[in-house]
Amino acid sequence: MKSHRYCVIMCGGVGSRFWPFSREDKPKQFIDFFGTGRSLLQMSYDRILPIVPKENIIVVTNAKYASLIREQLPELEERNILLEPARRNTAPCIAWAAYHIHAMDPEASMIVAPSDHLITGEQTFCDCVTRGFEFIEANDALLTLGINPVRPETGYGYIQIGPEVTPGINKVKTFTEKPNLELAKVFVDSGEFFWNAGIFLWRASVIIEALHRYDSDLTDLFDKGLADFGTDTEERFISQNFEACPANSIDYAVMEKADNVYVECARFGWTDLGTWSALYDNSQSDESANVARGAQVISYGSQGNIFLTPDDKLVVVDGLSDYIVADADDVLLICPKTREQHIKQMVNDVRMRFDKKYL
Amino acid sequence: MKSHRYCVIMCGGVGSRFWPFSREDKPKQFIDFFGTGRSLLQMSYDRILPIVPKENIIVVTNAKYASLIREQLPELEERNILLEPARRNTAPCIAWAAYHIHAMDPEASMIVAPSDHLITGEQTFCDCVTRGFEFIEANDALLTLGINPVRPETGYGYIQIGPEVTPGINKVKTFTEKPNLELAKVFVDSGEFFWNAGIFLWRASVIIEALHRYDSDLTDLFDKGLADFGTDTEERFISQNFEACPANSIDYAVMEKADNVYVECARFGWTDLGTWSALYDNSQSDESANVARGAQVISYGSQGNIFLTPDDKLVVVDGLSDYIVADADDVLLICPKTREQHIKQMVNDVRMRFDKKYL
């Protein structure tokens, strides 16, 4: 029996925060940060396989990463790779995927997930997603996953829950911006706020309808291609029209406006791995509280560092604590963990001096 | 007209102080520390060429560096490379070179110089060495070069001068061990003390005579080979006898005992490059007082560091001052300059954990 469940993995990010370990031609989602042999993208793919058949898994990415996708997910059929000709944030990406899937399967339900987050507790994840599919298949709902907040994180958006409509699933009361620390503590203590993980479930028809209501500029554009989606001319239609989409996030375009938005409160481990500190916190540290990926480390009076190096490199470090040391072949970065928000500026400085050479 | 002037470059050192940039299979003297395209050995060779014809330049090294010598000094004839089958410090090395040269040219005068020091002011060096040759050709003297001390260095031995015997050349009053800082300051202020650079000039016959008088164990051994030196059987004689030489320095074996020892007060720039700090002090620093060999450096709040990396590597460093950062392919060392005396211990720790892998 053909499954009507689909997965859309969003894989177009070019984050520079992990530079020099992530590069313009190999961003974060393609990197095996944990030395497991699988990149974040591959882990995202592996994670959904028990729920969605592989012929229903679709990866949306920027055209320039096509060969990386084929290399990392050789089992993916060519027609399941959607190549965006331009970067336009999540709303156009999700709209395209929804139109594409709906054209092939009008009964389709879908989960949309980023490719560059880390999730632990795979079975909990599977149970949660399965419950989510059942909910949106029975309801005209836009469902988002809310993560039980384990610390007053100021780097994430939060979702405030309203009344429970079915066990574990609540109406969304509000989406909030990133709070300051004081407010984040209040959020966590209240038990009413969950982290916004940017993972969504809905039927293709339901999100298309919501887009029509809340972002008609976008649907006006995609509706012109209704005869193309799911056919040989889809690619030509996208190449001629996608760039015209205004860049917009799905949160802003739909989720914060619609009234059929629900949140499933999830208990699996989650991080967007948006910072070196998050990477540090999610990695196994040695007896000196140093984290090493690739490196053999001998340390003297050195704690709390994170070393990312080529495989099997020996790092001997003395009198260095709480630093990021990233050695990526032609670039070596040494930077206090507390200064990681400046890496973006550093990357800009590198671009000014060396153009694209080290990026 | 055949020149009777010879040069012996001592090239057998295996110093681990510059690990991981210097390695057991490529020690300090073979490294191009300054990015000039010439290693310290090659610079030593180039420096003496205006004074000593190349057929009279002899390199003494450990057998395991034979191929490195041939690679770095391809113009050197095979018979001018003396390969020690064992490491026995400078006295046996110099004795062999003196017997070897004397067998070929009984009138030979010679300069003996280390291969891993840095000398600046080549013309001053040439003038000084030429004056030295003239002195020892006219006198049965053991001449050492004393460097005008420009700071109260505690890492060097000092030579106290006695009466001047000819302009710029004095009788040696005493050789001293490495002084503490207070004493070193007194030495420098006195004007009577000079750094012992370990560069010697003498006639081959005169040093052989001095060795007979002050280290007869050594000459007893070498005298057995008098029929072999300068012939096809020299190599066999050395392979059968050299290891029996007790390890000893020429300073201890002869210079501190003989009464015909003189010092020429030299004015060229000299350092034994025995420490990373010496390397730092002798290198051009950028506007942030960082020194880089190989690296392109972008620094933020970082001063006084020394970066040794593969050519053209980009180093981005934030909040790091007065560190040694040495990136040598399979090893990365990050260590405060003040801790460099511990590098030897680190190398031992590496050997304990990884055997020879990273050495």
Describe the structure.
Two copies of one chain form a homodimer. Chain A is α/β, with parallel strands linked by helices. In chain A, 30% of the residues lie in helices and 27% in strands. A five-stranded mixed beta barrel of chain A has the order 6-9-7-8-10. In chain A, strands 12-14-16-17 form a four-stranded mixed β-sheet, with no helix packed on it. In chain A, a hairpin with a 2-residue loop joins strand 7 and strand 8. The model of chain A has no long low-confidence stretch (mean pLDDT 94). The A-B interface holds A 20, 295-296, 298, 300, 309, 312-320, 323, 325, 327, 330-336, 339, 342, 346, 349-350, 353-354, 357-358 and B 20, 295-296, 298, 300, 309, 312-320, 323, 325, 327, 330-336, 339, 342, 346, 349-350, 353-354, 357-358.
